[in-house]
């Protein structure tokens, strides 16, 4: 009996050793790729499965990126999980990779998330399919089409402002993250789902509850994405979103789209574009590339997920910048007041372009607090850069650390100072055109850029019409560690002071 147990023990131990060995070999399969790239500084971690401290949530990722560029230069490599990454923080190389030589880098990483509503989102699609979807939807978000959506934005902002004014009568404490998340949700619900929403006034609305449910899982999403850098297949074993959340939003959208079709309602907005796209599903081109009703639905979900947090984040830190820089805030208030006087107190799509200083404040906020931490491209065929001798092998992930460029003195002198003047027309020639990456760059840039600018500008102009910001004892920024995709911070408060005119 003892002999049997000993034999069984040996079998178990041997099996465990085999599994561990296989896991390590799998996790380190691509190791050696970066070491073969001539002249490339490479960060080689001693950990069994590689990766840097960001993968155990010890460091602020964008700060680490800045430090790495200072230490290793504008081009360096590292392994994140099992994948070799090359970091490029040189605007000229960014131009080549993202624009001129786009044919070498036309994909981002394609992963199977095990969920039909995630796998079909635009940024996850393979190039040929992505190109069809992007080309169809791009005209929907041009300046002309934004005009109608601007009316919907304004209605949402005005409803939101009424609730905010009532709340601020108590003590004037302004919670940017909470309030702007509600606003951006309301705007995208109207423009992307045809659903009128007032999240602050009706927090128990089922739409609002599902938004909260999605947001509450954010930590889990970040952890799972980190794990899949080592073992990609694990992404299927745990859902990134609470069960039923994406299905809820998809059902809302299906019902709105169906109602529009059955009642022959034609409104020049995002939903109308999706209905038109739905009508193209029977075509040979769509069949060839596997574009289905699910693909169409997913673009509205992508529009929502990509938009509501980035918009609220930008508004949050624009408010922060104004509170911390009262002279700049006063200059902006003068511009807003002059604009309102010229336009009979109305803030409208046709005229908001007159507020050039507000636009510059938005751009400078995106420079200092870019929501996207890194831009990603995958090399699909070996790329050679003769001037530097750099060779990026096929299959390597190229990461563009946005903050490393935005905080480089060479491109933005005194980068820690809030200086909107950098983005005024008279200073345009002084800036490297490829150093600002607030909305990405090249064919993969943010498809909703005009929508985002419009919503942020309308929202801030309406807020500054009645209030100005001041910092208080809790106005301190603390970023979440371990984030590799979207920049996140803990909540803080500002004082919103009623303006006396």
TrEMBL record:
Source taxon at top rank: Eukaryota
SUPFAM superfamilies in the record: Cytochrome P450
Essential cofactor(s): heme
Designated name of the protein: Cytochrome P450 3A21
InterPro entries xrefs: Cyt_P450, Cyt_P450_CS, Cyt_P450_E_grp-I, Cyt_P450_sf, Cytochrome_P450_3A
Pfam family, one: p450
Recorded topology in the membrane: Peripheral membrane protein
Record-linked CDD domains: CYP6-like
Entry-linked PROSITE patterns: CYTOCHROME_P450
Function: Cytochromes P450 are a group of heme-thiolate monooxygenases. They oxidize a variety of structurally unrelated compounds, including steroids, fatty acids, and xenobiotics.
GO cellular component assignments: endoplasmic reticulum membrane
Annotated signal peptide: none
Alphabetic keyword roster: Endoplasmic reticulum, Heme, Iron, Membrane, Metal-binding, Microsome, Monooxygenase, Oxidoreductase, Transmembrane, Transmembrane helix
Major subcellular site: endoplasmic reticulum
Keyword Iron: yes
Binding residues for heme: 446
Regions crossing the membrane: 6-27
Family (UniProt): Belongs to the cytochrome P450 family.
GO molecular function list: heme binding; iron ion binding; oxidoreductase activity, acting on paired donors, with incorporation or reduction of molecular oxygen; steroid hydroxylase activity
Protein's cellular compartments: Endoplasmic reticulum membrane; Microsome membrane
């Amino acid at each position: 009996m003892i002999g049997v147990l000993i034999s069984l023990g040996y079998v178990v131990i041997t099996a465990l050793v085999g599994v561990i060995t296989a896991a390590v070999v799998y996790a380190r399969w691509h190791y050696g790729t970066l070491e073969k790239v001539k002249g490339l500084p490479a960060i080689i971690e001693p950990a069994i499965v590689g990766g840097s401290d960001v993968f155990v949530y010890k460091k602020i990722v964008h700060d680490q990126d800045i430090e790495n560029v200072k230490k290793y230069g504008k081009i360096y490599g590292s392994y994140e999980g099992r994948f070799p990454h090359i970091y490029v923080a040189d605007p000229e190389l960014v131009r080549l990779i993202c624009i001129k030589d786009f044919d070498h880098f036309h994909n981002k990483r394609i992963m199977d998330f095990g969920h039909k509503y995630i796998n079909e989102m635009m940024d996850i699609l393979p190039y040929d399919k992505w190109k069809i979807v992007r080309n169809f939807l791009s005209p929907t978000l041009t300046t002309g089409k934004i005009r109608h959506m601007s009316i919907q934005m304004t209605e949402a902002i005005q409803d939101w402002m009424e609730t905010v004014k009532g709340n601020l009568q108590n003590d004037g404490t302004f919670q940017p993250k909470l309030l702007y998340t509600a606003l951006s949700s309301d705007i995208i619900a109207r423009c992307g789902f045809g659903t009128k929403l007032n999240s602050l006034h009706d927090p128990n609305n089922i739409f609002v509850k599902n938004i909260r449910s999605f947001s509450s899982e954010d930590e889990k999403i970040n952890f799972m994405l980190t794990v899949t850098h080592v073992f990609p297949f694990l992404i299927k074993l745990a859902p990134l979103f609470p069960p039923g959340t994406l299905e809820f939003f998809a059902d809302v959208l299906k019902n709105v789209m169906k109602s529009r079709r059955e009642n022959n309602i034609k409104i020049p907005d995002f939903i109308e574009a999706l209905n038109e796209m739905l009508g193209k599903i029977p075509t040979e081109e769509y069949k060839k590339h596997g574009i289905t009703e699910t693909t169409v639905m997913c673009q509205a979900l992508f529009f929502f997920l990509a938009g509501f947090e980035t918009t609220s984040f930008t508004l949050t830190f624009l408010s922060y910048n104004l509170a911390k820089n009262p002279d700049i805030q006063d200059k902006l208030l003068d511009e807003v007041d002059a604009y309102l006087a010229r336009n009979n107190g109305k803030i409208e799509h046709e005229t908001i372009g007159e507020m050039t200083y507000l636009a510059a404040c938005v751009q400078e906020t995106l420079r200092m607090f870019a929501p996207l931490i890194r831009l990603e491209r995958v090399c699909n065929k070996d790329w050679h850069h003769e001037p530097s001798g750099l060779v990026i092998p096929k299959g390597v992930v190229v990461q563009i650390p946005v903050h490393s460029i935005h905080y480089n003195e060479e491109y933005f002198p005194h980068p820690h100072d809030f200086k909107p003047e950098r983005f005024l027309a008279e200073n345009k020639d002084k800036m490297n055109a490829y150093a600002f990456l607030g909305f990405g760059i090249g064919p993969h840039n943010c498809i909703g850029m005009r929508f985002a600018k419009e919503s942020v500008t309308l929202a801030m102009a309406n807020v500054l019409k009645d209030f100005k910001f001041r910092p208080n004892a809790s106005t301190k920024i603390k970023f979440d560690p371990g984030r590799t995709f979207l920049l996140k911070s803990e909540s803080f408060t500002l004082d919103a002071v009623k303006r006396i005119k």
